[in-house]
Amino acid sequence: MKITKGIIIGVVVTITLVALAGMYKFNYLSGQEGYDVDGNKIEVEEKEVDVEVSHELTTGEETFAVGAEQVDCEGVGPQKCLIVNGKYFYDHIEGFEYEEGYEYVLTVNIEKAFDGEVPADASIYKYTLVEVVSKEKVK
Q: What span, in angstroms and rounded, lies between the C-alpha atoms of 99 and 118?
């Protein structure tokens, strides 16, 4: 009887130690960088990627199709963006007074905004309204 009690106590202690070790692995390692939520090490295969960044400026006049609504977007911080030619437009068009509920077709002059280093929160372009080609109320 004493041997059976000893075996049972030994099994219970072993199970408790294994459970504690598992909780340690889960709670401690899952919060560490390089480990997933289960405490398993994440293996990351590093690959070298060539990225070519073009800073060629497209300057001159362009036609902008401006949507009827502004949308929430993130630039340097939260802001409202126009939809121009189907894409978010984060900049300002000098001389253009946007009115919600109208679709516009604009002729816009695009020129280089800076000669030297461009500030991190600035556009490399300056946009100036040349002409409002059309302004139509959206129903």
A: 30
For residue 133, the one-letter residue type is V
Given a cut of 80, whether residue 111 has pLDDT beyond it is: yes
Rg (CA), the chain: 31
Q: What does the domain layout of the chain look like in residue ranges? A: 1-50, 60-137
pTM over the 0.70 mark: no
**Do residues 77 and 57 make contact, with C-beta atoms less than 8 angstroms apart?**
no
For residue 70, what are its two tokens? 């502004």
Backbone CA torsion sign across 42, 45, 48, 53:
negative
Quick: pLDDT tens for 37-79. 566 666 666 656 555 544 455 789 999 999 999 999 887 788 8
Q: How far apart are CA 67 and CA 105, in angstroms?
A: 9
Q: Report residue 94 as tokens.
A: 């000098």
What is the distance between the alpha carbons of residues 12 and 76, in angstroms, rounded to a whole number?
A: 58
